[in-house]
Design goal:
The chain is an all-alpha fold. The protein has one domain. It is built from ten helices and no strands.
Amino acid sequence: MPITFNEAFAIAPTAIGELAAEFVRRCDECLEADKTSQPTACMFLALRSVSLLLGMGKLMDAPTFDSWDVLARSFLESTDLLMTFRFDDEGARTKIRYWFAGKVDNSWKADHQKCEDFIRRLGHGETEFGTRWSLMTTLSHPTLYAAKNSSINVAAWVRKTEGSTEVMVNKVADYLTLLAKLIVITTFDLPGWIPLGFDLSRMPNADRFQREWKTAVGPIHALNAEITLPDGSYRSASHKSTKAARSNPGG
């Protein structure tokens, strides 16, 4: 029988623990083989991602949702860059060499378009990695919308009013979705990606979670698919299409 929403939330810490242990094991092997290799870079980002996800789990409470949003943005940056680094091509390896050089510019930024095109070619529809990153950027920086969220948050815990059950459920659904994303990006060896050599037998709960999470979380996402931020406050796919059309009005 597939897991329920509550069961998925309950199993998440165990799945994260299994991922962390396997990431550490493989990172040790990769470091021993080559400290600046493509697999080593992927392991570093996998460990950063699981570390952030662990912290996010500690913030699954109404008074700390602001902090959760900030970590979620960092998590997306880490997993999106990890996906960029998994491509088995010279472009990815060049970017990794630059990343290992530790420069202060945008070596940490993922190639969202490349990732989106890749998922689309596999037949999995639209991912909108760039849009999701932009949304989280708007909510984690000191924008008007982030400040309003913080004001509501602080007022609620100062006045000791109960938080919205709906908001809590949505945050849990987002958290479980991010866990599923990390499992897929790290443990799947899709065509065009370098293999990372993880042993799924060491991660039975994580493997089960990945296979069944959508049944538990899908209905909640279906009810809350609408973006609440106003158009123009973040960079959406439609925004990019409009910009491209303006720059090339002749088609």
